[in-house]
Amino acid sequence: MKTFNLKQSNLTATLSKKSVAFLATTLIAAGLFATATTASADEVTYVVKPGDTLSQISDKFYNDQTHIQSIAKANNISNIAMIYVGESLTFNTDATSDTETPAKSVVAQAAAPAVAVPAPAATPAPTASIATGNGFTANSAKEAIAMTESGGSYSAQNGQYYGRYQLTSSYLGGDFSPANQERVADNYVAGRYGSWEAAWQFHLSHGWY
User: Fold this and answer.
1) For a Cys staple, 196 with which of 56, 87, 142, 170, CB 3.0–4.6 Å?
2) Taking the model in full, what pTM does it have?
3) Domain parsing of the chain, residue ranges
4) pLDDT given for residue 139 in this prediction
5) Is 128:138 a contact under the CB 8 Å cutoff?
6) Using CA atoms, how far apart are residues 155 and 26, in angstroms rounded to an integer?
7) What single DSSP character describes residue 44?
8) Distance, CA of 191 to CA of 185 (rounded, Å)
9) pLDDT confidence of 36, banded at 50, 70, 90?
10) Bridge-partner residues for 138, per DSSP?
11) Which intervals of the chain form a coiled coil (predicted)?
């Protein structure tokens, strides 16, 4: 009777050990299964439908269109513009977005500032020389009359005519200064001929003005 009990105890102990081992194995297997399920939980298989494109599929699963290349790479798609209805696409929805090549920065070359080129100075037209009848040369009609009448002297006197333009003393008002002679001569010519050029033309034909 004791021997039976001993064997029964041994059997119970053996069964208990086997149960524990089986339970442990089951739990470990369950843990591994759970781990595998978790690891593959982000991987999906999608069957292409009519009208689908990789950009639409990327937008559907990632809410953006930056995973087109990663989906194509995972399914060996060489032409991202060509997928077929009924084709199964497997990809990881936890994948990072495709690396975007940064756009090359284009640096605009600053336009060279315009350099102001000074206009060439206008060459003054040569002044026509006027040869007077008494051997003088003048560069204006006024000068020609002065040189003809008095040789250009403000103190030249010929009877009642005095000064550079040989005006009467009464015309000069008794003021024989060069400034007054110039002023009175200009007023006389402007009133009688309109210009020194016209006065000179009259002088050429009449010998006086």
Assistant:
1) 142
2) 0.39
3) 1-33, 41-97, 130-206
4) 81
5) no
6) 144
7) E
8) 10
9) very low
10) 130
11) none
- Does residue 116 register a pLDDT over 90? no
pLDDT at 78 over 80: yes
Give 39-69 pLDDT, tens digit per residue: 355 889 999 999 899 889 999 998 988 889 9
Q: Which amino acid is at 127?
A: T
Selecting from 3.40.50.20, 2.40.160.20, 3.10.350.10, 3.40.50.300, what CATH number does the domain 41-97 have? 3.10.350.10
- Do residues 152 and 166 lie in contact, with contact meaning Cβ atoms separated by under 8 Å? no
Per-residue pLDDT, averaged over 81-93, amounts to 90
Q: Is residue 148 a contact partner of residue 132, using CB atoms and an 8 Å limit?
A: yes
Q: Looking only at Cα atoms, what is the longest distance across the chain?
A: 188
Contacts 24+ apart (CB under 8 A), 194-203: 195/141, 196/140, 196/141, 196/142, 196/145, 197/141, 199/141, 199/145, 200/130, 200/141, 200/142, 200/144, 200/145, 203/144, 203/145, 203/148
State both tokens at 195. 């210009």
Closest CA to 198 of 141, 133, 130: 141
Nearest-5° Cα angle at 161, 207 to 205: 10
CATH 1.10.530 for domain 130-206, yes or no, is yes
Tokens 């084709």 belong to residue: 87
Nearest to 97 by CA among 75, 66, 69: 66
- Cβ neighbours for 53, distance < 8 A, ≥ 6 positions apart: 81, 83
Residue with tokens 């081992």: 21
What is the bridge-based pairing of β-strands 88-92 and 167-168?
Answer: unpaired
